[in-house]
Amino acid sequence: MSKLGNLGARLHRGEISYDFIGHRKIWYGISILITITAILGLAVRGLNMGIDFQGGAVFTTPATSVSVSQAEEYAKDASGHDAVVQKLGDNKLRIQIAGMDTQQSDKIKAELAQDFKVDKESIAADLVGPSWGDQIANKAWQGLAIFMILVVIYLAIAFEWRMAVAALVALIHDITITTGIYALVGFEVTPGTVIGLLTILGYSLYDTVVVFDSLKEQTKDITKQTKVTYSEVANRSINGTLVRSINTTVVALLPVAGLLFIGGGFLGAGTLNDISLSLFVGLAAGAYSSIFIATPLVADLKEREPQIKALRKRVLAKRAQAASEEELVEARTGGAGEAEDATPAVVGPRHQPAARGRGRGRPSGKRR
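The line above is the sequence of Protein-export membrane protein SecF; the predicted C-alpha cells follow.
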C-alpha cells in the first residue's frame, strides 16, 4: 500500500506518467468493439423485462423440494407463458410470469398448488397490470432523459460545452455496455436495475468531473505559455487523479461484488442480482470511460480550436529550435575538443635559453 501511495504521489507531481492521450485511438477502438458487442446482444437476445415493465404475476411458494427446472415446467403448463423461477431462502421459490392476463391468476395459483402439493392459500401472489407496467417503463425513460439533459446543462455551465459533450458520450457508452451485458447474461430488468443504473451514472460523472476540474485549473492560461500543449496537460490531469480513481473504484466494487457473487450466487438471493449486476458493470465501465474516453475526447475537441492549434505549433516550433541549438552546441563542443586533442603536449622539463651577458656590469660583491 505504501508503494501504491508513493506511485500516486509521483504521478501527481508529474515525475512519472503514462501517455493516455497519445494512445487514445487504442482506447477508442476497444470501446467501439465492446459497444458493438453490447448492441448485438441487445438486438439478438433483447432485455428480460420484469413484470414491473411488462405486467404479470409473481407467485411465492412455501418451502418445497421441487427443483427450479421442474417449477419452470409447472408454471409454463399452468399459464402458457415462459416463467422465471428463482430459489429463495428456506427452499422457497419465486415464480415470475410476465405478459399473462392477471384475471387468470386464481386458476394458475390453483394449478401450482396442485403441482407443488401445497395448500392454495400458502402461495402468495403479487399482480401487476400491463398498463401499470407501461407507465413504469415510461417513467423510467423519462427520468433517464431528464437526468441526461440536466447533466449536460450543468457541465456546460460549470466547465464548457466540449466537456459536456465528452461526458455525455461517456455516459451513453456506460449505459450501452451495462444494458448489453444484461441482455447477454439474461438477468431480469426491474426497477432496482434502473436505480442501480442511475447510481452508476452518477458515480461515472463523479470520476469524470474530478479529472475535468483538474484539467480546467491547469489550462486556465495555457495560451500564454509555450512549454506544453493542451493534450499534454490533459494527460497530466489523468495521471494526477489515476490512483485516486482506482482506489475509489476498487473500494466501491468490493461490496457490490459481495452482493452479486455471494448474495446472488452462493446464498441464492436472486432478488439482489438485478441491482448488483448493474452496479458492478456500471462502476467498472464508468471508471474506464472517465479515464480512457471522456478526457481524451475533450483533448481531441480542444485541439481543433484555432488558439489551441496555434499553441501546439508554437510549442513544437520552440522544441525544434531548442533541439537544433543543442545539436549545434554539441557540434561546437566536439570540434573544440578535437582541436585541443590535436595540440601536442609538452613532455619533460621546460628549458629556457640562458640570457647573454647575464650579470654584465653587476658588482661582484667583493669588498675592496
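Note on the example: DSSP finds eleven helices and six strands in the chain. Confidence is low (pLDDT under 50) at residues 345-351, 354-359, 364-368.
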